[in-house]
Amino acid sequence: MPVALPPPSRRRTTYATTFSMKTGSSDEIKTDLLRQLAAQIEAELATIREAADATHAAATHPDAKAENKYDTRGLEASYLAGAQKERVSELEATLEAIRATASRAFGPEDKIAATALVDLELGSGQLLTVFVLRYAAGYALKAAGRAVQTVTVGAPLGLALLGKTVGEAATVEAKDGTREYEIVAIL
Predict the structure, then answer these.
(1) Which of 57, 65, 166, 173 would give a disulfide with 108, using CB separation of 3.0 to 4.6 Å?
(2) In Å, what is the CA distance from 28 to each residue of 13, 35, 150, 182, 187?
């Protein structure tokens, strides 16, 4: 949800200090975000494991045996079970990596890297907060009542942000044109 922005002259000092004053240290904020992320991945993992088990059972059930040369139900179910098992492995590796992630504090002069919590101002004046990580893109988290989106260092926005500092702009080419994000704060 968009957040109203303070006047431009106060932006660079307001966001980071307000965020940390309301919620604690940057380490506490990031630890909480990593816990939320791990919980979401665990829930997704449980769902996919359950689906993989059901699909495997369907693929190996006697009713899945082909009745003629055109009956591919069992074969299709086995392909799906294999893909689900692969997704389980990917999520387990992501969860392990997230649990092992050590966050670091960033200041306004620091360059953006993994574990940076970054406030971005879109051209429309809306504020977007992203948590830059090596893994687990696209998860929606909350910190101090604010929406936080996970972005990986390999995603277009993540790549555009890496190495930038407060006051710089990150440009991303999207299907609907070029998007520019001003870096307002780094925590």
Answers:
(1) 166
(2) 20, 11, 17, 25, 11
Q: What's CA 42's distance to the chain center, in Å?
A: 14
Per-residue pLDDT of the chain (187 residues; tens, 9 = 90+): 444 444 444 444 444 444 544 556 788 999 999 999 999 999 999 998 998 888 777 767 676 566 666 656 667 777 888 888 899 999 999 999 999 999 888 887 899 999 999 999 998 889 999 999 999 999 999 998 899 999 999 999 999 999 999 999 999 998 988 999 999 999 9
Q: What is the length of the chain?
A: 187
How do strand 146-152 and strand 127-133 relate by DSSP bridges? parallel
Q: How far apart are CA 171 and CA 42, in angstroms?
A: 33
Token representation of residue 89: 């492995």
pTM of the model: 0.79
Please give the Cα distance from 172 to 23 (Å, whole number). Answer: 30
